[in-house]
Design goal:
By secondary structure, the chain is mainly α. It has six helices and no strands. The longest helix is centred in the last third of the chain and has 18 residues. The radius of gyration is 14 Å and the shape is globular.
């Protein structure tokens, strides 16, 4: 089906990544997210943008205000997936990955069918980025 919305879990790739995180042992979740986020910042990285959005949203969900986002309804318990992990370090990595993958001149922004969808997607990335910096 591909992508059906602008939210961080509104694509097959993002949902698959979130399902993978949810299914593995809790002590391995932060490591998987760290690997995905670190990989995104490497020159020439080909980490799917959808996975970066999902990883960043999972980190945000574990932060104090993270439970306030609507996407949490799709993943009950998401706010505790990274319990015990160093969220400060992960949030810095996630913010860096968002900056790297979603630069203003990124192909990602040109891939949206309408300007309205692109603006919504930009809002999602901006919200995640702001949340990671709190």
């Amino acid at each position: 089906m591909g992508t059906w919305g602008t939210g961080p879990f509104d694509s097959d790739a993002a949902e698959d990544f979130a399902d993978r995180v949810e299914e593995i042992a809790s002590e391995d979740r932060a490591l998987l997210i760290r690997e995905r986020l670190e990989g995104a910042a490497l020159p020439g990285a080909e980490t799917p943008h959808a996975e970066i959005l999902a990883a960043a949203a999972i980190v945000v969900a574990g932060m104090p205000l993270g439970g306030n986002f609507s996407w949490n309804e799709d993943y009950p318990g998401i706010s505790s997936w990274l319990e015990g992990a160093d969220l400060g370090d992960l949030s810095l990595l996630a913010a860096t990955a968002l900056e790297s993958c979603f630069a203003q001149d990124s192909w990602y922004w040109r891939s949206w069918a309408t300007a309205e969808e692109r603006i919504e997607a930009q809002g999602v990335v901006a919200t995640l980025h702001r949340s990671l910096q709190t």
